[in-house]
Amino acid sequence: MTLLDTKCRGCGEANVEEFIDLGDQPHCNRLIPPAMADVREPHFPLRVGFCKSCTLVQIDHTIPKEDMFSNYPYVSGTTKTLVTHFKETSARLVETYGLGSGDFVVDIGSNDGTWLAQYKPFGLKVLGIDPAANVVDLALKNGIPTWVRFFNEETVDEILEKEGPVSLVTAAGVFFHLEELHSVVRGVRKLIGDDGVFVVQAIYLGGMIDNVAFDQVYHEHLVYYTLKSIEALFAMHGLEVFDTRLVPIHGGTIEVHVAKKGARPVQDSVREMREAELRKGYGELATYQQFATRVWKLRDDLLAILQDYKAKGKSVYAFGAPAKGATLVNSFGITPELVQFATERNPMKFGQMMPGSRIPIIDEEGQNPDAYLVLAWNFIDEFVKRETEYLENGGEFIVPVPELKVIGKAAAE
After folding, report:
1. Can you give 15-37 as a three-state secondary structure string?
2. Tell me, what CATH number does 315's domain have?
3. Which residue, 250, 283, 316, sits at the end of a domain?
4. pLDDT, tens only, 338-374
5. Which residue range forms the structural domain that includes residue 94?
6. Nearest-CA neighbor of 14 among 6, 22, 23?
7. Residue 388: which residues within 8 A CB-CB, separation 6 or more?
8. H-helix segments, 281-345
9. Strands of 104-108's sheet, edge to edge?
10. Do 278 and 346 fall into the same domain?
11. Is 255 a member of any domain?
């Protein structure tokens, strides 16, 4: 048994047992400019543990939030699947909570404002909070009011003073990033008051386990939630999950609806998910130890495929250079000898290299390798539709997660 030398980020108990060590890795979103090609960037431990007190899964090392999020290369609006997801979610929330022109929505970690933009047809007042000035500039250009801030209790006081009461607070793909986790939850509690609702969408730990999606582990993701562990966190602050569902975005995401304890009736969906998690063993350390064994088998199988392509003189590029891709290539020791380039649509990444591996990032347009290693596997359905011609002409997609497979011409037909 190896207890991590840290207290649980949720309950505060010193009872967090390590179940996988992915080695020392660089910050996954700190891309490397050509001038730094020969300089080794800082590397940090990437160890994952399970709290045997509250079941929260977490990493033990924290890179300061200012280093990770003040300038950010990820832009929500570049992926059609994500835009569609936010449009559908916004319409559903407006209908569920009867929101209209007098209501105010605040989005935590709002990025370029893609989610908030979907509320425009409903006439809602919106405000985004995001610490990355570069993506906030994009939001402002798109007409989305956004403050350059880290969300915490202090920010909430400012919102209430300047903007007034809030009907809905949202957080998508950010609630596991929070270094000031308890300050954020206290802030949410204050912001939603007695009647408001907080809706969180976070990568679901259950989906990670089922899909061997270990590449969702990186330094930006400090914690990994099941319903049980996120309920425990909210309960510490007088909040209660009253509804929940799983949504398919990002390879499996949990959506929880939260309010002041007792303010809203708890739906059957909460009981049903609690029971499903119990059946699947998501509250047991052994489940995560078995997950680690599956990760290392995936490594061996994927490397065998890539080495076979190399032996046959075939070119392999990465399709996308997402943060999760850095975890996968660095954990498995994949270098430009096996994957020559990573292609991207996001121009902020062109001409740079993936951290650690030093795989060069190039414009996706006009490329034609023998195969692509799909690092952004959570959007594989979109990619197959978009790249029909490439597949019909003999190109292949190597998809590592949720099941290692090679997609070829047959998928395009």
Report:
1. CEEEEEEEEEEECCCCCECHHHC
2. 3.40.50.720
3. 283
4. 999 999 998 989 999 999 999 999 999 999 999 999 9
5. 69-283
6. 6
7. 412
8. 285-311, 323-332
9. 146-148, 125-130, 104-108, 168-172, 197-203, 253-260, 239-247
10. no
11. yes
Q: Is residue 368 part of a domain?
A: yes
Torsion angle, CA of 45/48/49/54, rounded to 10 degrees?
120
Phi, psi of 148 (to 5 degrees): -85, 95
pLDDT tens digits, one per residue of 49-103? 999 999 999 999 998 766 765 555 556 666 788 899 999 999 999 999 999 998 9
Q: Are residues 85 and 193 in the same domain?
A: yes
What is the distance between the alpha carbons of residues 48 and 54, in angstroms, rounded to a whole number? 15
CB half-sphere exposure, 399, CA atoms < 13 A: 19
Residue listed under structure tokens 């890795």 = 25
Tokens of 96: 């569920």
In a domain, 289, yes or no: no
267 & 368 share domain: no
Q: Which CA distances in Å does 413 have to 82, 349, 360, 366, 368?
A: 25, 32, 32, 22, 19
Q: Total structural domains in the chain?
A: 2
Pairing mode of beta strands 405-407, 396-399: antiparallel
- Does residue 29 sit within a domain? no
User: What CA–CA distance (Å, rounded) separates 94 from 117?
Assistant: 13
Does residue 56 contact residue 233 with C-beta atoms inside 8 Å?
Answer: yes
Among 20, 44, 17, which residue's Cα sits nearest to residue 30? Answer: 44
Phi first, then psi, for residue 106 (nearest 5°) are: -115, 130
Q: Specify whether 76 is located in the same domain as 203.
A: yes
What pTM was estimated for this model as a whole?
Answer: 0.90
* Amino acid of residue 133: A
- Nearest-CA neighbor of 344 among 361, 368, 329, 366? 361
Statement to judge: residues 278 and 329 lie in one domain: no
- Indicate which CATH number applies to the domain containing 126: 3.40.50.150
